[in-house]
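This section describes the prediction task in plain terms. A model, or a person checking by hand, is given the sequence of a single protein chain and must write out its three-dimensional structure as a string of C-alpha cells. No templates, partner chains or ligands are provided. The sample shown here is typical of the held-out split.
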Amino acid sequence: MRLLSIIAVLLLVAGCSTEEPAKAQFTKVTVPGVPARLAAQGDQLVVATRVAGKPAMVRYRAGKVTEVALTPTTGYGAEALWYSLSADADQLLAIGGKTGGAHGNVRWSVWRTTPDGGLAEQPQPFSTFGGLGGGALIDGVLPTKGGPLLVGTWQSHSAGADVMLWATDGTYWNRQDVAGTPLESTSASLKFPESAAAHGADVVIAGWVVDKGRQRPVVWTLRDGVATLAPLPDGGRNGTAITVSCADTCSIAGRVDGKLALWRQDGNSWRRRSDVPVVTVGDRDRPVPPVGDTLVYSDRGNVHVATLGGDDRAAAGPTGVVTAVTRVGDTTYVLAGPDDDKQTLWRADPG
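The expected answer:
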C-alpha cells in the first residue's frame, strides 16, 4: 500500500512539473504596403514591398523607415512583384516579375543600385530572359569576386532545362555557357535549382536532381568560375533542397520524405542536422533555413521559434506561413502571414 502511495505521488509531481516554455515575443514592424522580401545591409533592414499594386522598397533602421527611390523603365517593371532581393555593403540586386503577353509568361525585370542610393530597372532585350527556351529567374547574388550573377533556368540542348547563370557587363545581362558542366541537364540527370545565395566569393545553389527514377536533394557551388555538384547526405527516398542562406556558414532547408530537413555546411562538405522539429512539408511549401541555431518555422499555421538542439517555443505575434527570416545585429526579423498578399513584418529583440 505504501509503495502504491509513493508511485501516485511521483506521478502527480511529474504531471504538475510539465510547463509550456514562455512564448517568443515579437513586435510588429509597420512599413508601407505589403512586405515581400527582406535583406540585411549593414545595420539596416531592406524591405521590398508592394504599395497600391506597384513595387516599392524601404530601409528600416532603429525604428525609422526611409524610402528607396525606384526607377522602372518598362511597363512590366512598374507593376512587378518581387521575386528576389540581395544586398552587400554597397549595393542591392533585385528581381521582379509580372505575368503578361500572349502566353501569360512572367516578364522579368532586374533592378540595381543607382549612384544616388536608389534602385533602377535595367532594361533588357526580350530574348535575355524570354522567348524560345526561356525559363525562370530564381535569385540574384552578389559574390565578393566576379561580379553579380543571376541564377535561373533555361531550355537545355540535351534534356529538360539547365541551371542557367547570367553575368552582366554593367548594362546587359548575358547567359553563360553551361554545356558540359554540372549545371547542364542530361537525359540521365535532370537539374532543378530552387534558390541561391552568395557566400563570400562563392555562390551556393540549392535544388534537386532526378536520376535513375529518384529525386535527390543537391547543392551546386560556384567557385572561381567552376561549378561543382554534391548530393546532400541522408536524402531519403525522395528529397528536395529548397532554400539556402549564408552568413558565417551556409544552411539549407528542404524536404525529405515529406518532412522538414536541414543541412549545414561544414567546410567543403555538408551534414544533415538531426536536431530538427518533426514538421510536414508539402510540395508547395518553402521552409526557411535557420539563422545560426535559431529556426523559425510554421506548423499548421502556427509559428514556432526553435533553438536547434534546445527548446521550441510558440511565437507571440506572427502567424501563418513564414516566408523570410533575416538577422540584423542581434535582432531577428520575420515575414509571415496567411498568403503572399497578407504578409506582416515582425521583429524579435535579444533577451
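For orientation: Residues 2-17 form the longest helix (16 residues).
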